[in-house]
Specification:
This protein starts with a strand and ends with a helix. It is globular, with a radius of gyration of 17 Å. The longest helix is centred in the middle third of the chain and has 18 residues. Helix 1 packs across helix 4, helix 3 packs across helix 4 and helix 4 packs parallel to helix 6. By secondary structure, it is α/β, with parallel strands linked by helices. Helix 9 links the parallel strand 6 and strand 7.
């Protein structure tokens, strides 16, 4: 564990998890499904496309796929196809990250938990229900429900508003550059669990209060250390 700075207070009122790359090892699946659509349409995959879409809302990434990648159809049609294929993959095999379920249960015994994710509500529900931890979260919110995806702070600000807690007394668990930026801009304490396949940029990682290597390290003490 790397602690970037000391906590300014020890009060934590809620912990908010990202989903993709934190609870479920799905970033590569998203990439495979989107690349598959492009290949079926005979469209080359732009070098920057994968990282560009990390953290985007459904409307944002589906528009990117149609406008930038050139996949035919409306953004709504493309989004439906991608989400359907992801749901099928999850039902066949849910790629939970090691230690995710235990970490959720461990922290739920101490604090209210929420999910603030770029995944659509349908996939958030599928993951949490399949993992058997849906009842451990008081709230789930998708970037579909706010005005912009990550790195906008909107989803975190809305999550804390709905929970009735102050952002400065909340802690986020994130893996990607855009997720780290979103949580930090919203004023939360930030725990980074860097994604091995898509590691965050150094400037984004520097926004984290604490950096851990695995969810096995996500303890009450780490959450308190990340509090602002």
């Amino acid at each position: 564990m790397t602690q970037r700075r000391q906590a300014t207070n020890g009060m934590v009122e809620a912990v908010i998890f990202d989903l993709d790359g934190v609870v479920v090892d799905s970033e590569q699946l998203w990439d495979e499904v989107r690349r598959g659509l492009a290949a079926e349409a005979g469209r080359p995959w732009p070098e920057e496309a994968t990282r560009a879409m990390l953290g985007m809302s459904t409307q944002e990434w589906s528009t990117y796929l149609t406008d930038v990648v050139g996949i035919p159809g409306s953004p709504e049609q493309v989004a439906t196809t991608v989400i359907d294929r992801l749901a099928e993959r999850y039902r066949a095999h849910l790629p939970l990250l090691p230690g995710a379920v235990d970490a959720v249960r461990r922290l739920a015994d101490r604090w209210p938990l929420a999910v603030a994710s770029s995944s659509p509500p349908r996939l958030i529900a599928t993951v949490l229900e399949t993992a058997g931890v849906a009842d451990r979260f008081q709230l789930t919110i998708s970037t579909e429900e706010v005005e912009a995806g990550k790195p906008s702070p909107a989803v975190y600000l809305e999550a804390t508003r709905r929970l009735g807690v102050e952002p400065a007394r909340s802690v986020a668990v994130e893996d990607s550059s855009n997720g780290l930026r979103a949580a930090a801009r919203a004023g939360l304490g930030v725990i980074a669990v860097p994604n091995a396949a898509f590691p965050p940029a150094e400037d984004a990682l520097a926004l984290a209060s604490v950096v851990i290597e695995s969810l096995d390290e996500l303890t009450e003490e780490v959450v308190l250390a990340a509090a602002r």
